[in-house]
Design brief:
This protein has 236 residues and is mostly beta strands. The chain has one domain (55-236): Deoxyuridine triphosphatase (dUTPase) (Deoxyuridine 5'-Triphosphate Nucleotidohydrolase, Chain A). It is built from two helices and twelve strands. It has helices spanning 58-68, 160-163; strands at 54-55, 71-72, 87-89, 92-104, 122-126, 129-132, 136-147, 152-158, 167-170, 179-188, 194-197, 201-209. The longest helix is centred in the N-terminal third of the chain and has 11 residues, at 58-68. The strands form two sheets. Strands 1, 2, 3, 4, 5, 7, 8, 9, 10 and 12 form a ten-stranded antiparallel beta sheet that branches. A hairpin with an 8-residue loop joins strand 9 (167-170) and strand 10.
């Protein structure tokens, strides 16, 4: 069976497949690695390597979440009434932020060094609303935990509601076979204090599936942030 899926041949749930073809299996693509080594259970590439990436749409994200526990807890519909939206969207998933924060402070005049970051640079805070000082930032954690399949990578982008207020969210990519809670960096670029609402939307994750699997995944190389649970400071 060919494990490389042509995105144009994938009908939405309940739709009739094109030309009477069977609906392709949405299980992550499996193939031999670029370096010539074989992943466990892999099948060989065809003569000409096909590696056509694509973005997952809503029903695919739902299936992956159920089958692989890719997102937990999982909201099947976008929640919008009276809150900054979160849950499943057309081609992504809007994540929430918990009540726990680490707010940056320069009171102790510590040097910001990613190789030797001092916990003294933060003040711990817990609450339904976090106020970030002007031109400062805070670290937070996602409500959702993630478990990425080997063929999937996640890219996280900030939400429009915050971006239009000068509040910037930065999260590095979710690599194949990474798992854990996301540590979220929230910057207040304005000269005024900024409010962040706990248990509401903070960013959107887009999921991309490759046409083949990587030679080495995040789990294979024992990444330093694998399995992180709370707000995690820089590690070397």
């Amino acid at each position: 069976m060919d494990r490389y899926v042509d995105a144009e041949m994938i009908p939405p749930p309940g739709a009739a497949p094109k030309d009477g073809a069977a609906r392709p299996n949405v299980e992550p693509a499996i193939g031999n690695t670029p370096g010539g080594g074989m992943s466990p259970g892999a099948t060989p590439h065809p003569e000409h390597i096909r590696s056509i990436g694509r973005i997952l749409v809503d029903w695919e994200i739902r299936e992956y979440a159920k089958k692989y526990r890719m997102i937990e807890p999982f909201e099947e519909h976008l929640k919008r009434e009276g809150v900054i939206s979160y849950g499943l969207s057309s081609m992504g998933y809007d994540i929430r932020v918990t009540e726990d924060y680490k707010i940056f402070t320069n009171v102790r005049a510590a040097v910001v060094d990613p190789k030797n970051f001092s916990p003294d640079s933060f003040v711990d805070y817990r609450g339904s609303v976090c106020v970030i000082p002007p031109n400062s930032f805070a670290l937070a954690r996602s409500v959702e935990s993630f478990k990425l399949p080997r063929s999937i990578m996640g890219i996280c982008l900030g939400k429009s509601s915050y971006a239009r207020c000068g509040i910037v969210v930065n999260i590095t990519p979710l690599e194949p076979e990474w798992e854990g809670h996301l540590t979220i960096e929230i910057s207040n670029t304005t000269p005024l204090p900024a409010r962040i609402y706990s248990q509401e939307g903070i960013a959107q994750v887009l999921f991309f599936e490759a046409g083949s699997v990587p030679e080495v995944s995040y789990a294979d190389r024992k990444g330093k942030y694998q399995g992180q649970q709370g707000i995690t400071l820089p590690r070397v």
